[in-house]
Structures are given as structure tokens and as C-alpha cells.
Inverse folding.
């Protein structure tokens, strides 16, 4: 009986210590390549992420701050990459999953469907895909400052 | 002869069908009131975000139209910004403006490729590609989001820009 009670208490503790809420994704995150830092915040009822730091902020070809030169909309190709919103329109689905959003790759100027899964409070799996979730690529992002 | 008559008849029917399916639309130019595009401090060097919300009713926007107004098309024609008069402002670099509503994704509508000086009015370069704006207008509540680069090393409290957006909206009667 005592063992059962201990097991139930242990399981409940484990569940509540990692029970996630929509706002847990808010913070500054570093993608796997380490070339940028992305701040995720909430606007109205959805979540968005923008580049707030670049390892190499200057474009060696121009000597100027990097811009979104691969944007298919030519009128927006001078938008600065620092401050660029690459994660858009994510909605919390529960159980540490944010869906319905897109991720933009400035390297090729393409937006992909995206799903974000929180592995633990300091790591996210960001999966970009085209059409079906099976055909995609996952990158693990790390929270910049650990929660205390 | 009979063949020619058949072709002429088909053409006539096709023209009748085209006219019966066509809808009467009307273009309107609507300018938002001056909106508070506000960034809540403390603001630090680097990228910061300011937001403004425009709530309206289609009936108030188009008082001369009957009820059940349908928005056929919409596009942003111009975006203007000015720092709030008498407010202390940091040095600000380029700004990008996006918009969203309840049922539309966030979409980029303008870029200001210039540093923003106090007490000067700036006009944004409007995006060539604009998606789903008619749905955003139908939602009757739009959030404008401005991402700007703060160039100064010090931190600042709230800053407010005066934002005005002009839209071309096509309604269906």
C-alpha cells in the first residue's frame, strides 16, 4: 500500500513539475547552428519569434548590416535580418506543442509549415516541413538563460 | 448555316452567363485614425517591437452601404509614421510594419529604410505582395506590429509613434 502511494505521489510530482503552459515558450532561444538568437513572444493570442542577435551581423559582400536579400518580394529585400520575424502565428495545442505556424529560412527566402515541441523547459524541437509532417527537418533550440 | 447559328447561340449564352455572374464592386479609400504604435519599456539597444490595434465596424467605415457588407479586395496604399510630439526618443533605425487579425496570419506590409528622427513624418515603402487583407478587414480588428532597431546603448521607457495607414478596399453590393 505504502509503495503504491509513493509511486502515485512520485508520478504526480513528475507530471506537475513538467506540466507546460502556452507561455512557457516565451524567451530567447538559440538554434542548433548557433549563428542567431531568436526571441519568442506573444502578440494577441499567438506566438512569434524574431532574430535579436546575429553572430555575423555584417554582410561581407556589402559591409552593411545583413538584410533579407532572398525575399521573393523584391520590395522587402532591404528589411534588416536583425529584428526579422522568422516564426509566425503559432498556437498552443497543449502538451508542450505549438502548431499552425510557419518558419522562414532567410538563406533561401522560403517559409515552411512548422511545429514546435518543448522537450523540457530549456529545449525546443523545431520541425519545418512542406505539406506532410513526415517530410521535414528538425532542429533543436536551446533556451539562452536557464529558468531558475 | 446551322453550324454558324449554333456558334452564335453559344456565344450569346456565354455572354449572358458572364453578365449574370458579374458582381458590382465599389472601391473606397479608407485611412485609419491616428493610432498609438506603442513599444512598452524598458527598451534596450537592438530590436524592439511596437504594436497598435485598430478596431472598427464595417458599418461605420461604409455608412452609405447597406448591411451585410462583403469585402472583395483590400490592399495597403500608404503607411505613415511620426514620433509622438514632445516625447523623448532614442535613435531609431529601420522599421518593418506587419499586420494581423484574428483569422489572418501576420503579413509584412511595409518597410522604412531610414533612421527615424524626432518630429519628422516618414512614409513607408509598401510591400508589393500583400495577402489576405480582405479577410483582415472583415475581422473588424487589426493589429499593426512595428519592429524597429534601437541604436542607442542606453535604455528607454515607453515610446509611442503616430501611425496612419491608408487602404484601398473594394466592397461588393
Amino acid at each position: 500500500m505504502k509503495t503504491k502511494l509513493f509511486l502515485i505521489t512520485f508520478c504526480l510530482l513528475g507530471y506537475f513539475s513538467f506540466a507546460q503552459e502556452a507561455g512557457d515558450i516565451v524567451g530567447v532561444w538559440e538554434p542548433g547552428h548557433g549563428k542567431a538568437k531568436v526571441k519568442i513572444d506573444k502578440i494577441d493570442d499567438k506566438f512569434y519569434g524574431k532574430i535579436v542577435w546575429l553572430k555575423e551581423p555584417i554582410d561581407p559582400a556589402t559591409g552593411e548590416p545583413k538584410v533579407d536579400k532572398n525575399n521573393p518580394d523584391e520590395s522587402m529585400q532591404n528589411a534588416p535580418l536583425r529584428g526579422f520575424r522568422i516564426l509566425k502565428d503559432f498556437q498552443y495545442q497543449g502538451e508542450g506543442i505549438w502548431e499552425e505556424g510557419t518558419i522562414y529560412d532567410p538563406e533561401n527566402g522560403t517559409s515552411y509549415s512548422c511545429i514546435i515541441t518543448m522537450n523540457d523547459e530549456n529545449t525546443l524541437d523545431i520541425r519545418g516541413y512542406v505539406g506532410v509532417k513526415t517530410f521535414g527537418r528538425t532542429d533543436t533550440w536551446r533556451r539562452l538563460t536557464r529558468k531558475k | 448555316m446551322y453550324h454558324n447559328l449554333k456558334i452564335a447561340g453559344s456565344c450569346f449564352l456565354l455572354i449572358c452567363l458572364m453578365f449574370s455572374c458579374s458582381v458590382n464592386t465599389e472601391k473606397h479609400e479608407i485611412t485609419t485614425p491616428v493610432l498609438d504604435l506603442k513599444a512598452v519599456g524598458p527598451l534596450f539597444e537592438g530590436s524592439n517591437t511596437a504594436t497598435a490595434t485598430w478596431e472598427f465596424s464595417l458599418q461605420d467605415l461604409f455608412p452609405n452601404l447597406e448591411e451585410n457588407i462583403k469585402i472583395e479586395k483590400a490592399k495597403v496604399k500608404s503607411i505613415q509614421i511620426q514620433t509622438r510630439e514632445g516625447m523623448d526618443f532614442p535613435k531609431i533605425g529601420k522599421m518593418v510594419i506587419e499586420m494581423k487579425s484574428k483569422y489572418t496570419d501576420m503579413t509584412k506590409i511595409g518597410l522604412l529604410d531610414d533612421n527615424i528622427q524626432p518630429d519628422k513624418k516618414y512614409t513607408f515603402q509598401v510591400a508589393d505582395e500583400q495577402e489576405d487583407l480582405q479577410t483582415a478587414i472583415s475581422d473588424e480588428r487589426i493589429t499593426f506590429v512595428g519592429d524597429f532597431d534601437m541604436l542607442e546603448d542606453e535604455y528607454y521607457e515607453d515610446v509611442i509613434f503616430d501611425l496612419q495607414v491608408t487602404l484601398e478596399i473594394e466592397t461588393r453590393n
Summary: The helical segments of chain B are 2-21, 58-61, 133-139. The first helix of chain B runs from residue 2 to 21. The CA atoms of residues 88 and 159 of chain B lie 8 Å apart.
